[in-house]
Amino acid sequence: MSVCLPTLVLKENIIQLPNVTFKIGLTPQDALVILQMYLEAPHCISPRMKSLIDLLKEKVGCVAKHEDLTAKLSPVAMDSLVAINKLLAADEKEHPILATLFFNDSEVSKAGVLSKICGIHLTPELCILDLKGELVGFRNSKVTVTSPGKYQFVGEIYFEITPINKVEFDETLIHTWAGIVEDIRANIKIVLEFLKSFETWKDDDLGNLLKRLDPLGELMFLQFSEPTTMSNLVKLEGLTENSSVVEYDSILKICDAYMSTFPFSYKQELQYLSCENLVAKLNTVSKCVKFMNMIFTKFLNIDHVYDSWNRLGRLKNGKVLQSRFIVDHLRSFKKFLEAATKPQHSNRSLTRTKCSKNNNDSSPDNFNINNDDDNDLKCIEDFIVNIDKFHISEDGKTSLTKDYNRLRKMQSQSSEYQQLRNYFDIIMEIPFWTVGEKGQANIDINNTRKILDRDHYGMESVKERIIQHLAVLKLTENTPADAKSPILLLNGPPGVGKTSLAKSIAQCLNLEFQRISLGGVNDFADIKGHRRTYVGAIPGLVIQAIKRSKSMNLVILLDEIDKVGVVNSKGNPAAALLELLDPEQNSSFTDHYVGFPIDLSKVVFIATSNNKWEISEPLLDRLETVELGGYKSNEKIAIAQQFLLPRQMKRNGVPREQIRICDVILELIVNGYTHEPGIRNLERLIGQICRAKAIESVASEGSYTSEISKNDVIRYLGVPVKFSISEEFSSDDSGIQEKYGLVNGLSYNSDGSGSLLKFEMIGIPGEKRIFSTGRLGNVLLESCAIAETLVEHLFYTHTFVGYDQKELVRRLKETSVHMHVPEGAIQKDGPSAGLTMTLCYLSLILRRPVPSNIALTGEITLTAKALPIGGLKEKLLGASLTRSITKVLVPRLNRQDLIEIYADSIDGHAKSREVLTKLVLDEEDCLLNKSRRYSFSDVVESWIEKEYGIIVKYVDDFMGVISETWNGDVKLVRTVFKANL
């Protein structure tokens, strides 16, 4: 009978026998690879086993993904499961069947055991499978073992098995079996007597003392005194007492129990397993029974040793000879201790594979460090002996060898000894063996796109840039080692997904992820480590992250890099990052604590910031910036429906069908209760609603409704943050201030968001010109001075049609102006308010209000030119959130920013780039041809109006601002003006 089954190869002299329950511990990833194959055959999976596999999936989902988690059961294997379960119809319940083979001396056994998976047990680090051996099969296909570790899953293997059948027993066979049973009983009896004599020895019983010195006797005692072995001995004794009826099944059961209970060698057990018929099995068992009897009757017979000892004592120099015996025995015991405690790594790989990522046995860092000084020194000695196998620079090898030689000569009680020992403990935890691992080689661009689309809504241009970055990382695997990939800086306001994007990149690369928070770091030693001479010195944050990940090939997120402290007495932390983030230098990064260069070229660094202009220029020059803008209201609503609401319902234990929030209600929450570029506060509010509905669900008595209404929102969330944002920015007459002298500006905030900034001016009699309040910075004050000079120049060089020019000039000379920018607790600065302040001053002197639905931004010069500014997308988003601004004036040269925003919104990278190229060429032609300067396609402006609800108008100078603000109602005529020279 030929069957095909999933097969596990056991190594390191581990063997399983039939009719025995065998427990094996696998990593969660490896266990999931095997177990989820059986989901294709649900008749074999119990509900409890199914729930444990689902739990295992969740556990594996929190760590790096296994490269082969998608393995499925073939149709042939599914048929084999049905056939074997039918063959083993001892009980009605079907089980998954797993085959095990055995590997030793570079050879995989032909014989294998087909076992039922009877149980699954999850521990924090392992998944333990209970395997009940049922049948012996012989493989008829080739198996190749490649990975290190205690086991390897080799997929589906074909086996030939012989069904259990009845055998005709002749007199010879019956006699042979009866003799074997008697010998097994004798073995059990002699073992029990041996254990009794070994446990009850006395200090003055020299014979038993000599028996304790025999290594073979001690080994036998340790193995047979185990509670499990003792229990198995009792069961085996019971089986032999009930063996009067000669049956095939009972003979096999006794033989299997005997071979698994008594401590035979790997070769003996494999020889028994490889027997293809009952006669061969009985012959093998008979040899093993005689071998075990010889051990206890001959090799553990201490009488000859005891007599020899007494004979030595009667000789003239007997005491000397007995003393030499004791000394030689102690010397041999010491040598044995040294050999036994020395770690064995000869058969282990110096690189970690994906299957053994969490298995410390597969890497040379498994030095079993403990608090014993001698053992620690042996671990360090082993590390130094094998130092050439690690990826350590020559300087590092020399330095470590020198430090080790110093350590050997020190007293263990000295403080310097403890300092050096701690140093070696940390060095041995740095995964030097993983330098050069090629995690990027497994990058699947299509899978990357799916992961990014699954975890993040929108952000098409950002996703495309990340895919390009990962493609570069993949291609550099086939280029020389000195090929460098760029280091990304994700810049954007809080809550837009910078950190989660970095995690997605690590998932796409199948690498470990570590986050280093740089916010508030004001000591360069936090980055580069403290020198070993200091008390309590530790490595820098980067080396600590590498230690935690157990890999040199990982993704490190440098979070809030713009919040790094400034130069102080402890150095410049930002300057310490220069070496780390330079691809040309980080291949020899030197941590002050480690003391020698470490290759970090395989580490993928990603930085995040809220305001990239806060980063020092040399550091920013080393980073490739990817801009992440704030979300629009419709994007927040979509994210809330797809991501935030399901996540909060799961966290708060609310079933999916118990809460339904329509888009209209989400829009109310977004606009009435939040005013942020990101979605963090929105998620908190949704979580608050979920908790409130959870209380209602528990306390309700049949009156529960899942639909969230506007009244429910107010009841759960309270008073909106702003009843109407438009009221905050209203230009209605307060009863004190006139309507003129009020203008809406646009600002780009330090957190990366945009908002409306109101400028107010009041004129009172006096000769003092503009003075200001509202915590304005130097650049804003300079723009205010330009506005004052420009308006004064305008009145002397132009005539305002329909106005009394003399009255305007008199008003200009005799008016003292106070300018205020609300929210005085917030520091404000920047050049983009020049147009706004100039218009505000002109509105005050003309006593003509500026429409409250208009906002403007742009820098102004003394020649009245409007210069482009930055952060336009964020400013438009901030204006849109107010719901009161319908028209925005921006410098003409800022249209290129809107073109880029529009092109990035188009689905499909190829189409997006095609549209961008067309629009850029058209824009270039418009700027070079004055007659076409404003004759361009309005596709960009129409999209802005649709998405943001804002009409964008462009201006080249302040005259354009006047025209667009008052729709041509204010006209100026140039007059002759003689300059005062």
UniProtKB/TrEMBL annotation:
The active site is at S832, K875. It is an enzyme of class 3 (hydrolase). One of its GO terms (biological process) is proteolysis. It catalyses: Hydrolysis of proteins in presence of ATP. Residues 358-368 have a biased composition (Low complexity). Residues 344-368 are annotated as: Disordered. GO terms for molecular function: ATP binding; ATP hydrolysis activity; ATP-dependent peptidase activity; serine-type endopeptidase activity. Belongs to the peptidase S16 family. This is endopeptidase La. It comes from Pichia kudriavzevii.
